[in-house]
Design brief:
Shape of chain B: globular
Strand content of chain A: 15-25%
Largest sheet of chain A: 5 strands, mixed
Oligomer: heterodimer
Radius of gyration of chain B: 11 Å
Number of helices of chain B: 3
Number of strands of chain A: 13
Structural class of chain B: mainly alpha
CATH class of the largest domain in chain A: Alpha Beta
Mean pLDDT of chain B: 86
CATH topology of chain B: Non-ribosomal Peptide Synthetase Peptidyl Carrier Protein, Chain A
Largest sheet of chain B: none
CATH class of chain B: Mainly Alpha
Number of domains of chain A: 2
Distance between the termini of chain B: 13 Å
Strand order of the largest sheet of chain A: 1-7-6-4-5
Radius of gyration of chain A: 19 Å
Order of helices and strands of chain B: HHH
Helix content of chain A: 25-40%
Helix content of chain B: 40-55%
Order of helices and strands of chain A: EEHHEHEHEHEEEEEHEHHHEE
Largest interface: A-B, 11 and 9 residues
Low-confidence stretches of chain B: none
Shape of chain A: globular
Number of strands of chain B: 0
Strand content of chain B: under 5%
Number of domains of chain B: 1
CATH superfamily of the largest domain in chain A: Thiolase/Chalcone synthase
Low-confidence stretches of chain A: none
C-alpha cells in the first residue's frame, strides 16, 4: 500500500466541561453518564474556531514530520461543517499553514478520517501526490440539543492531524456506506428563498441510540476482521486497536468479541467525549506523545457513523 | 425452548447464574441498562437468525420470549 505516517498533531479547546456541570443544566448525573458512555469530561469550544484548532493540529503534525506547508501536495479535511460553508476548512488551513497545494473538505461523519485516509491512499498510490496532510476536525457542540440528556452529554470538540508520505505503512483499508436518514441525523439550515418550499430540517443532532449501538458493534466486528485478514495480521501482532471514540460500551463489546486485551484498547473517550471524525487522529497523537505507540507498531483503526458510513485500516507506524 | 436459550444467552452475556433467570425476571431486576439489553438482543438475533426491534414495552424475560417466538414461527 501507499503511505506511512510521518507526523501527528492535535488541538482542542481550553474549556473542560465535566459531568457535574452538565447535571446543573439537565436532569442527569455523573454515574449515569460514566456507566453508559465512559465519558468524564470533554472539551467544549467557547471562543476557538474550528479553523484555529485544525491549523494548530496541522502545524504540530508538520513540525513532527520536519516539513512545512510548502512541502504538501494535498490537504484533506474531514469535517461535517467548517466555520464556513464556503470557503472550505481545508482552504483556510492551507492559507494559515502557508501551503500552496490543492485543498478540499470531505464529509463522512464520524468515519471521515478513514475516508480521508482512503482518498490519500488513492492519490499517493496513483502518483498524483507524495505528501498529504489529513485533518479530522469537528465542533460537535454546535450541533446539539442541550435539553436532550441522551445526546448532549456525548460530544466534545477537537482536531487531529496526520502527515502522510509515500511509503509502505498502510497494510489494508476499507470503507463502506449504506444510505440512511433515520438512525443518525443533523439537519442543515438554509437561507429562506421565495421559491423554496421544502420542509425545514431539525438542525440538532438526533440519534436512535439502540439501533446505532447495534450498527456500531456489528460493523466494527466485520470491518476489523476483514482488514486484519487482508493485512495478514493477528490479534497478538497488534499493538493497539484505536476505535472511533463514540462510546466505551461499543468498543468494550467489540474488543471482547475480537479477542483484544484491555491494554490493546486505546481509550480517549473519558477525557474527549465523542469528537466525531477528530477522535482517531486526536488519540493517535496523544498515544504517540505518551510513548504508548512508536515506530514499527501495528495499529488497527476502526470507525462508524452517520451516513451510515464505516471504515477500518491496518497501519504499521 | 426459546426461554432456555434466551436465559442462557442473558446469563452468558452478563455473567449471571442462569438459575436466577425466570420468565418473570425484569431487566431492572437483572440490573441491565438499555445498552446491556441491546447486547443481549444482538446475541439473540445471532442465535435465532432474526432481527428484533426492542420497544419500551419489553420489560421482562417473558416479553422477550414472546417477541422472539412471534418472529421465529
Amino acid at each position: 500500500m501507499s503511505f506511512r505516517i510521518i507526523g501527528t498533531g492535535r488541538a482542542h479547546p481550553e474549556f473542560v466541561l465535566n459531568n457535574e456541570m452538565l447535571s446543573e443544566i439537565i436532569d442527569t448525573d455523573n454515574e449515569w453518564i460514566v456507566s453508559r458512555t465512559g465519558i468524564n469530561t470533554r472539551y467544549v469550544s467557547t471562543h476557538e474556531t474550528i479553523t484555529e484548532l485544525s491549523t494548530k493540529a496541522a502545524q504540530r503534525a508538520l513540525e513532527k514530520a520536519g516539513l512545512t506547508g510548502k512541502d504538501l501536495d494535498l490537504i484533506l479535511c474531514s469535517t461535517m461543517k467548517g466555520d464556513y460553508a464556503c470557503p472550505s476548512l481545508a482552504c483556510l488551513v492551507q492559507k494559515d499553514i502557508d501551503a500552496n497545494c490543492p485543498a478540499v473538505d470531505l464529509n463522512a461523519a464520524c468515519s471521515g478520517f478513514l475516508y480521508a485516509l482512503d482518498q490519500a491512499d488513492a492519490y499517493i498510490a496513483s502518483g498524483k501526490a507524495e505528501t498529504v496532510l489529513v485533518v479530522g476536525a469537528e465542533m460537535m457542540t454546535r450541533h446539539l440539543d442541550w435539553t436532550d440528556r441522551g445526546t448532549c452529554v456525548l460530544f466534545g470538540d477537537g482536531a487531529g492531524a496526520v502527515v502522510l508520505k509515500k511509503g509502505d505503512g498502510l497494510k489494508s483499508i476499507k470503507i463502506t456506506a449504506k444510505g440512511d436518514d433515520q438512525l443518525l441525523v443533523i439537519g442543515n439550515t438554509f437561507c429562506p428563498s421565495p421559491y423554496g418550499k421544502q420542509p425545514e430540517l431539525d438542525p440538532q443532532f438526533r440519534m436512535k441510540g439502540g439501533e446505532v449501538f447495534k450498527f456500531a458493534v456489528t460493523s466494527v466486528l466485520r470491518d476489523v476482521k476483514e482488514v486484519m485478514k487482508a493485512a495478514g495480521v493477528k490479534v497478538e501482532d497488534v499493538k493497539m486497536l484505536i476505535p472511533h471514540q463514540a462510546n466505551l460500551r461499543v468498543f468494550q463489546a467489540a474488543k471482547d468479541k475480537l479477542g483484544f486485551t484491555d491494554e490493546q484498547l486505546a481509550m480517549g473517550i473519558d477525557h474527549y467525549g465523542n469528537t466525531s471524525s477528530a477522535s482517531i487522529p486526536l488519540l493517535m497523537d496523544e498515544l504517540m506523545e505518551e510513548g504508548k505507540l512508536e515506530a514499527g507498531d501495528i495499529i488497527v483503526l476502526t470507525a462508524f457513523g452517520g451516513g451510515l458510513t464505516t471504515g477500518a485500516c491496518v497501519i504499521k507506524l | 425452548m426459546s426461554f432456555e436459550k434466551i436465559a442462557e444467552l442473558i446469563a452468558e452475556n452478563k455473567d449471571m447464574n442462569v438459575a436466577d433467570i425466570t420468565m418473570e425476571t425484569t431487566f431492572e431486576d437483572m440490573e441491565l441498562d438499555s445498552l446491556d439489553v441491546i447486547e443481549v438482543v444482538m446475541s439473540i438475533e445471532e442465535a435465532f437468525g432474526i432481527t428484533l426491534e426492542i420497544e419500551d414495552s419489553v420489560k421482562t424475560v417473558a416479553d422477550l420470549v414472546k417477541l422472539v417466538d412471534s418472529l421465529v414461527q
